[in-house]
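Lab notebook, bench 4. Continuing the backlog of folding jobs that were queued last week. Each job is logged with the same field layout so the records can be merged later without manual cleanup. Today's entry covers Ribosome-binding factor A, a 126-residue chain. Filled in by technician R.K.

JOB TYPE: sequence-to-structure
TARGET: Ribosome-binding factor A
LENGTH: 126
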Amino acid sequence: MESKRQQKVARQLQKDLGEIFQRELPHSFNGAFITVTNVRVSPDLSVARVYLSFLGTKNKEMLLDDIREKSRTIRQSLGERVRHQLRIVPELNFFVDDTAEYAEKMDKLFAGLDIPPAPEEDDEDN
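JOB STATUS: finished
OUTPUT FIELD FOLLOWS
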């Protein structure tokens, strides 16, 4: 379970990284719309796992590799934003957030199920 401090730092990092991807670096990623869906921070606040969702791109893995290559620049921009709140700017590890695709896949599976209606039971008072 995450501490309150971890949760606060994660929310702040999510907000700041979202602004970085939307305002400072949108041209760097071929016009792809990048959303920071979740951030998990280690207990010592030195490592952040950043989950990203992509729109407007076909090859998510190639875009993720491009983001990982530019992680130093992203971390530097993040450091300028959080320098008064955090002693150490966390190391950023980026991952694709595939929960939307997973939910869509599950919806398709459930829609394809053929569930017969339950037999009607007669309520007789004996």
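OBSERVATION: The chain has four helices and three strands.
SIGNED: R.K.
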